[in-house]
Amino acid sequence: MVVLKLFSRAFAAVVALALAYLAAALLLGAWPINRDFQPTPGGVEVFVCSNGVHTDFVLPVRTEEVDWSAIFAPRYYPADVTRFDHVGIGWGNLDFYRSTPRWSDFRIGTALHSALGFGAAALHVQYRPVPGPAERCGRVAVSAVQYRALANYIAATTAGPDPVAPGYGATDLFYPARGRFSLFKSCNVWVGQGLQAARLPAGLWTPFAFQVLSHF
After folding, report:
1. Taking the chain (216 residues) in consecutive chunks of 10 residues, what is each chunk's mean pLDDT?
2. What is the pLDDT of residues 58-86, one digit of tens each?
């Protein structure tokens, strides 16, 4: 009887924490940051793309502000990626990234391990074409100053110039990254904080992908 009561209380506490997390996420994700933002005509196009769960920045490979090929060297990639004009950059837990190439590979144990802050972080970097109309992306034209701030934010996350693991195909790789993935610092929070750093439209705290795109 005592064990049953303890189990019931523990279960109730877990449910209460989960509901509190969800409520905070929905409230803070909807709280707009940089509401005075105005697109820059002819500025650098910044894309944020989502697969429904995870968001990435998709950026031009080369601009006057930054050359991503100098940071993520094409020579490391199995394919000739110099033909691509854009690069997708996302952040997350390396173990989860590598064990979940498709959502059909999702495992609750790996997800919990990542959510609790265990394991190294990584940047997933893929050379690619400009996003097409079928992709779920937000797009905004930004000033040189704003783009430089975003580039500095991403570059500050990198923890080394050499890949730490192969990617899912011939055009992507994983690089060591600073930070620690957790329930409170998800891949989408990382993207949202980058948008904030560049004074672009964002939510105050965006653990879910839809919250990031809702501000574009």
Report:
1. 59 67 89 94 97 95 97 98 98 91 76 84 98 96 98 97 96 97 96 98 96 92
2. 999 999 999 999 999 999 999 999 999 99
Instruction: Say how far apart CA 24 and CA 20 lie, in whole Å.
Output: 6
Q: How many CA atoms lie within 13 A of 37 on its CB side?
A: 20
Helical ranges in 116-186 per DSSP H: 144-157
Residues in Cβ contact with 13 at an 8 Å cutoff, skipping those fewer than 6 apart? none
- Whether the CB-CB separation of 110 and 100 falls below 8 Å is answered with yes
Residue pointed to by tokens 């105005």: 38
- Produce one character per residue of 63-90: b if its CB has 16 or more CB atoms within 10 Å, e if not: eebbebbebbebeebeeebeebebbbbb
**Contact status, residue 157 vs residue 178, Cβ threshold 8 Å:** yes
From residue 112, give the alpha-carbon distance in Å to each of 15, 51, 116, 160. 16, 20, 6, 27
Indicate yes or no: pTM above 0.90.
Answer: yes
